[in-house]
């Protein structure tokens, strides 16, 4: 499915307290103007919400597919764009709206300042400004949970490149919020937090990645931190953080176009996995973006990511 996001004004969204939005269409789906139950209003929504966060306007796209079971709490997945991309670019590229539609999941695409995120020593404007992007994502989660029937034990993170490093930073900093992470083409750029509690982590990386190398984060050399960040090192770091048994993955699942190495005996019933795409560059998705060709459908990376994340939920304290 490839619709352009329909955007609705905050005054017409019953029971939602949006501080601002950009409107393209008047009214709600099916001509709804606020009458009926909240569930009826929420069905099939596709809108952009904005708020003032730390003196900056920040926005995100929310998609509630018609396949969502309105009688139950449903999973939430945040799909975070890479550096220089927009939330619209990420949605078109990753096609995670298809995953949401097929599985009855609420999906969110946040927008980074100057199309970037502060995820550690990388990347660009947001990093240079030391923006509180983890705080922003947590507030977005709070607003979506308040406005929709979300299962707070099944909140997942995915994303590409800078968005992947932010996803892993969020897992490291706020493991109490997120059930699992499965993201593309980057690493955790911070040291482990003392309050981190193991959650499942998957990173998907192209062996031919020329931007964020599979072997190390060479784009940021001679930064000493960059030298310790590569796909294998990232796998091993998360395995150590998750208290996984053994020094090597205990599961290896090769196929024609990719392989999956996993630590499966880890604390809290978690797993840590690395998906290696044999012929992929920085773009692991099926679709192409700018100068980065996609894999043309040879590997369903989103399907792999969703199949991994959706196996896990977390205990929520009452």
Provide the descriptors you would attach to this structure in a database record.
318 residues; alpha/beta; Rossmann fold; ten-stranded mixed beta sheet; 8 helices; 10 strands; globular
Question: Could you characterize the architecture of this molecule?
Answer:
This protein has a ten-stranded mixed β-sheet with strand order 1-2-4-3-5-6-7-10-9-8, sandwiched between helices. It is built from eight helices and ten strands. The relative contact order is 0.12. Mean pLDDT is 86; it is low at 1-41. It is globular and about 45 Å long. It has 318 residues and is α/β, with parallel strands linked by helices. β1 (46-53) and β2 (56-63) form a beta hairpin.
Structure in a nutshell:
The chain is an alpha/beta fold and 318 residues long.
């Amino acid at each position: 499915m490839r619709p352009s996001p329909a955007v609705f004004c905050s005054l017409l969204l019953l029971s939602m307290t949006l501080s601002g939005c950009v409107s393209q269409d008047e009214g709600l789906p099916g001509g709804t103007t606020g009458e009926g139950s909240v569930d009826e209003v929420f069905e099939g929504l596709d809108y952009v919400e904005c708020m003032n966060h730390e003196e900056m306007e920040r926005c995100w796209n929310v998609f509630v597919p018609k396949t969502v079971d309105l009688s139950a709490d449903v999973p939430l997945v945040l799909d975070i764009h890479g550096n220089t991309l927009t939330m619209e670019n990420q949605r078109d590229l990753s096609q995670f709206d298809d995953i949401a539609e097929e599985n009855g999941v609420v999906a969110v695409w946040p927008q980074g300042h100057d199309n970037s995120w502060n995820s550690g020593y990388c990347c660009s404007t947001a990093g240079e400004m030391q923006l509180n992007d983890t705080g922003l994502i947590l507030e977005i989660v709070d607003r979506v949970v308040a406005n929709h029937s979300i299962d707070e034990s099944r909140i997942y993170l995915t994303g590409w490149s800078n968005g992947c490093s932010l996803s892993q930073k969020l897992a490291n900093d706020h493991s109490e919020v997120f059930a699992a992470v499965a993201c593309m083409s980057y690493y955790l750029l911070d040291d482990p937090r003392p309050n981190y509690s193991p959650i499942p982590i998957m990173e998907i990386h192209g062996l031919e990645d020329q931007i964020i190398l599979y072997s190390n984060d060479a784009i940021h050399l001679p930064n000493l931190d960059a030298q310790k960040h590569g796909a294998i090192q990232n796998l091993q770091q998360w395995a150590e953080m998750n208290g996984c048994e053994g020094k090597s993955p205990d599961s290896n699942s090769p196929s024609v176009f990719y392989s999956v190495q996993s630590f499966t005996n880890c604390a809290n019933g978690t797993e840590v996995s690395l998906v290696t795409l044999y012929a992929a560059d920085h773009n692991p998705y099926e679709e192409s973006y700018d100068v980065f060709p996609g894999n043309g459908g040879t590997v369903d990376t989103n399907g792999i990511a969703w199949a991994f994340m959706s196996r896990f939920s977390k205990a929520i304290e009452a």
